[in-house]
Amino acid sequence: MVHFAKVRLSGFKSFVDPTEVDIAAGLTGIVGPNGCGKSNILEGLRWCMGEGSARQLRGGGMDDVIFNGTTDRPARNIAEVAIHLDNSDRTAPSAFNNFDELEVVRRIERDSGSSYRVNGQDVRARDVQLLFADLSTGARSTAIVSQGRIGALINAKPEGRRLLIEEAAGITGLHSRRHEAELRLRAAETNLERLEDVVTTLGGQLQGLKRQARQATRYRNLSEQIRSTEAMVLHQRWQAAQLALDEAKAQLAAVSEEVATLTAESARLSTGSADLGSKLPALREAEASAAAALHRHMVARDTLDTEEQRLTARRTELEARIAQVDADLAREQAHHQDAEAALARLQEEAAALGTGQDDSEVIDSARADRDGLRRSVETMETQATGLTRQIATRTAERDGLERRAAELAERLEQLQTRHAAAETELAALPR
Ligand code: ATP
Ligand code: MG
């Protein structure tokens, strides 16, 4: 059987200094004058056992249990009551049955409420109340009989009396536990209802999630298909690209070869061009000189043409003059013959007549005429001879000039041919 060994009060009501009250085996009495604090000790016990009502402790609020000062001592902020229980025979409730002595402490701090400890370990008020209920006592227990309590018990209703009997039978704890169990059961039922609601909600969610899972599976399958299709497409594209690359490489090689050939050709042509370019000034010079020569020859030809025309005219003129001279000559010869004939006739006449003065005068004049005519004939002959010689010279000159003109024409033609060839070559050169 668990015994109350002692109670220690500190800062509780009038017990401002720590006070220990030993509760020995048997009967313990507290004797003192009115107002010395006897009832405060009992209230300390009940407070420590878990009393929750300040009114039951003759106070307005729970903080009233803290020493609130006297004329010569300041108020405290903390009150503490400790009950020592002797558990040497180990009959305490199982939760606290590990120790030989149990120390139950309730402590209150102003404005911040109570706290409970059993053997230094923090516990709930409920645990302490239950501990004392199991020990068939407690703050409201009938085991504590205060002033006027006996009369109240006698007048109590059967339920009230039943409490007393149950306490005596030691099942108050069970009642308290049943109450607690019922509370828990109700809480569990409430929880269960809530859980059912939750289950219903979750069921709905589950349907949604299942649908989502199906969609996700479908999505995954489709994604896989898409991925494999994409992979195939990409592979095909890659192959096509590879083929195109190979083709392009082949083309590149061909083009490179062509480029090399063309480069070589270009180099060759450049060399040719350079060669031709180097020949060009000479050709240009030749062309210029040929052109100059051509010009010169053309001028010469023009001169020769003019000369030829002049000579032709001159020859025509000379021919005319020759013809004239021939005509004159013939006329003069005819005159001469006439004169000869006349002379012969005159001489015949003279001979026939003999010598006479008159006739000699006529003969003299005829002779003078004849001599004059002879002289003019000689002059004309000389002139004709000179003219014939001049004609021969001019003809020779003309022949020479014609030959020269033919030569020049031939040379001109040659020069024109060369000029045309040089122009063709020049046009064929790259710009
Ligand atoms: P009675 O013989 O008349 O029953 P009692 O010995 O039971 O008297 P209590 O009623 O225990 O005396 O003590 C009352 C005394 O405790 C009063 O003097 C009161 O001033 C004092 N008291 C009560 N509460 C406090 C408190 N919070 N702080 C200081 N003193 C207090
Ligand atoms: Mg009293």
Notes on the structure:
The protein is of the alpha+beta class and 431 residues long. It is 68% helix and 9% strand. The chain has 6 helices and 6 strands. The chain has helices spanning 38-48, 125-134, 149-154, 158-169, 172-353, 357-428; strands at residues 3-10, 19-22, 78-86, 101-109, 113-118, 121-123. Strands 2-1-3-4-5-6 form a 6-stranded antiparallel sheet. Helix 2 runs antiparallel to helix 5 (172-353) and helix 5 (172-353) packs antiparallel against helix 6. The longest helix has 182 residues, at 172-353. It is rod-shaped. The model has no long low-confidence stretch (mean pLDDT 86). The site of magnesium ion has 2 residues, from helix 1.
Briefly say what this structure is:
The protein is α+β, with helices and mostly antiparallel strands and 431 residues long. The protein is built from 6 helices and 6 strands. The longest helix has 182 residues, at 172-353.
Order of helices and strands: EEHEEEEHHHHH
The SS-based structural class is alpha+beta
- What is Rg? 87 Å
* Average residue pLDDT: 86
In DSSP terms, counting alpha (H) and pi (I) runs of 4 or more, how many helices?
Answer: 6
> How many beta-strand elements?
6
Q: Main sheet, how many strands, which sense, barrel?
A: 6 strands, antiparallel
**How are the strands of the largest sheet arranged?**
2-1-3-4-5-6
Shape annotation: rod-shaped
Task: Tell me the span between the first and last alpha carbons.
Answer: 135 Å
